[in-house]
Amino acid sequence: MHRLLMVLLLVGLIACQAGIGATAYFSDAEPNANNTFEAWVFSQWVQTTQGDFQAGVLDNVDTSSSPGDVRLSLILNPTLVTSDNAERSVTGTTPTLVKTLTFTKSGDTYNELRIDSNLRIDKEAGNKIAYSDIHVNDVSVFTHSTQSATYVAYQDTLDFSGYADGPHTIKLYLYTNSNSRAAYNSIFELYRTNTYADAGTIASQVLDTGIAGAKWDALFWDETLPANTDITFEVRASDTAFTKDAATPSWTFVGGTSPVTSGLPSGRYLQWRATLTTSDTSETPTLHEVTVDYY
């Protein structure tokens, strides 16, 4: 009988560590056969849906753009990608390439781009007009014109969400409607209009285990970490009820490597908090699921 119980215990522990199922347990099949073994039960608390995550406390994180995941929020923060601000000119009516900006799209922060440019004609004279033509991957997307001999500034917003990640080019052509007049440009800049926040947190809802002194046995999570990003965790527990945004009990930092099986607190009420960070605001870490084993 004792050998059977040891086998069942081993199976239960392996299943729990592997995250198999919602609950892993074993029981004593012969409670009246003069053995004194007391059965115990592991329970799992899994946070994996959009609703699970939205029930927590969110700061600078996004649970909507990829439902069921937690990512850093996009924020309005125009960031220069590349530029060519040397003054260039073209005389005549033939569109002539004067500047090329090359860049690599990488992620959602490139879904909207802003192009800053300017244009002037060498001399105001009757109906003489200077033109600029902006191409993305050799397709014309914006055209501007002016009869001013002083620079006129332009800002164009480009919906880049339909473009694939990878290399792209933005080209500037100049020309006029007169073979004797010249068109000039001195600003050609590309901006990302949104970037990811460099840090954000999500604190879970508070779980009432219903067990005084409940043991928090293991913390698991599933994540995607591009280069220069990270996710770390803190935990807290108490036998006294507390709200999800309460200042107490204090948090215990447990690091960024899943699973965590030591240094975890005990208590009927328990909560975790994840901190997402990036040093490259074109990338975000993604938290997919969090599981707590307790008994």
Characterise the protein shown here.
The chain is rod-shaped. A hairpin with a 7-residue loop joins strand 4 and strand 5 (about 70). The chain starts with a helix and ends with a strand. It has three domains: about 1-40, no CATH class; about 40-75 and about 200-295, Jelly Rolls, CATH 2.60.120; about 75-195, Jelly Rolls (Sandwich). The protein contains two helices and 22 strands. Strands 1, 2, 4, 5, 18 and 22 form a six-stranded antiparallel β-sheet that branches. Strands 3, 16, 17, 19, 20 and 21 form a six-stranded antiparallel β-sheet that branches. Strands 6, 7, 9, 12, 14 and 15 form a six-stranded antiparallel β-sheet that branches. With about 300 residues, it is mostly beta strands.
